Amino acid sequence: MKTPGRGEVSWVQVFKCITIGDAGVGKSCLLLQFTEQRFRSELDPTIGCDCSSRIVDICGKPTKLQIWDTAGQELYSSINKSYYRGAEVAILVYDITRRETFDHVARWLKAAMEVAPASLTTILIGNKCDMSDRRTVSYEEGESFAKTHGLFFMESSAKTSHNVEEAFTMAARTVWEKIEHGALDPTAKYAGLDFVPNVSRGGRCCS
Amino acid sequence: MGHNGIFRNETADTYEGAVPNWREKRPIKSLVTGRPILLALEDIDGSPSFLEKALRFLEKHGIKVEGILRQAADVEEVDRRLQEYEQGRTEFSADEDAHIVGDCVKHVLRELPSSPVPASCCTALLEAFRLEAKDAKINAMRSAISETFPEPNRRLLQRILKMMHTIASHTSENRMTASAVAACMAPLLLRPLLAGECEMDEVFDMDGDDSAQLLAAANAANSAQGIIATLLEEYEGIFHDEHLRCSLSPESQIEDSGTEASTDDGNLNAKGNGFHDAENDVDQEMDDDNGAERILSGKLSESSGYAGSDLYDYKAVNADEADAERPVEVLEGNVDLGKVQNSRSVENGSANVDTLLSENNPSNPASGHETPLSMGEILSSFDPGISVPTQNSEYSVERQSNKINGSHPHVKRSNFWGRNNARKSQHSESVDSSGEEELAIQRLEIAKNDLQNRIAKEARGNAILQASLERRKQALHERRLALEQDVSRLQEQLQAERDLRAALEVGLSMSSGQFSSARSMDVKTRAELEEIALAEADVARLKQKVAELHLQLNQQRQHQYGSTVDANDRHHRLPGHFSQQ
Could you tell me the pTM of the whole model? Predict the structure, then answer.
């Protein structure tokens, strides 16, 4: 396999991944479950945005998923534009027990489409499926919405970790596929953050 | 369209002329969103605004709801609730969804025309927040609030914080900690900080790298949350000075429904007390010639200080001149003017007001205004038009707080106000520059309201005109119908005539002999018919002749082109023919 990293062993492909969705749907919890395999039940809203990452192995390629987790409160804030820019993956989350969070999915998607690159891979996630006795959004509804908008769809539970790993790895795999099909050029648009501080600082000095 | 435009302008003009007092009417625009900060908590008449009601609802019913202020409600339901409010559902019932009300509050804050905390105040808070030592930090934040905040903004912020405080004090039920509540509300309260408008150590580089920008934004969000969380945690300490003043303000007065009854009693008693004291004071001061004027000028500064335009200038001027005791006198004068209407000395006082006012505004028909409200109205004429609504509302606030003011022992009160005013003067000087922009914004907001008012008026005028146009159209339509009827009637008549004529012509075509045997014709008609028949026969014959002659003439013209004489002869002969017959 061709590795664009000039043979450096430590080099990994970095995908920028963002989580979006209403406040309190479990974006941060999904992330926490994915990166640290734990669940936290306090209502602790994300401030501004958090960032964490995990390296996953996709078909033998080490892939760093760098996940930016934004506050759901921030739908109206200016933070969003820079947040969406350069993202390869968007994890769009709603809460299956709260209908309104699903109703707002279209808005979030629209916001993402306006700023994010066209090659954005979006995964729609119906979270909290461990509470399906309180479900107000059916699986089929989520699935058909995803289908009409060309999204991947999964129901997951950050609490039981059901489908969490799968969602993120599926996203990473899809991005790899896009790269291999030439639909996405990882070097053109977004260099891995690992290199960004040096590169950008150097660049600024010269210019 | 062009015509419409002209049309509208005209109606607006006439309308304005016809209803000169339109400004006194309530704005027809939204009662909920987009209101200036000055009117965020109270309506023009001093009654609680949508926001204030919603905050009270949250404090009462929202505290037990899990994830209150955090969980999003359906955007459409929030919109619907806002609309319903505008359509008259102005009270929140206990069974409403607290999340919707919570989001209504957020929506209103988000839609405020300017940030609840202006940029300069954000910067001041941010600087204070960066201090390491906790005590120093809290002190700095306290002075940032008392020195840089315009009064309406401080009141709004404090009111919101109070609600947040109440919610955070029920963490066990709603699972919202102070930090969580702060995280949810900070972006709305410290708008400029989040938007990167505040001076930061690390400058927002909008063209810079996305990640760096994002980090800076996240950093700002963190600071904002930290500031609000600190304000919330140290609410008592930071607002201690304002606390007295705050508890006097109307919004917090109604807050605790449980203790309301007892406080009311206290107020009543104390009111009498304060009233008495004040009366004495005024009586004493009225002996002094300047007394009344001093009171009144004090009053001027107090109420017109909120007029929006010269807010802090007025205060600063007044405070500079003021000696230590004066603010106290001034405020008590206020109470008195409102209440001791029958007192002789106060009558003098209002006479003085009139002269004072008419000096300033000769066109103002001020005469014997005794109630504080009408005073407010007079004062409002200083800033023609624009500040009318704010004036009244602010005035009523002032009035209410004065009332409650009575509940404190007299001596303590004078201390309190004295200190307060001294601080205010300091505060006003510093705000003068930094609050200028905010003031300008407020003025613009008021002007905007004004314009919206006008537009509404215009629209109403247009509606009326449209109605009259409609009526006219209707009238025209009716007339048209009537005319059409006439026409058809006439057509019938014509038809009848024609029928008659046809009958007559039939008669004509018959011989005169046949006529005699004709069925239903009377003698006269028959005679006429015969006559006509003869005449017609003659005419027909003549016509034939003429035609023949014309034919001949033409032939001659064609054939004997040269000899016109002959033709002339024939022409001359023509009349001869006619005369013969």
Answer: 0.52
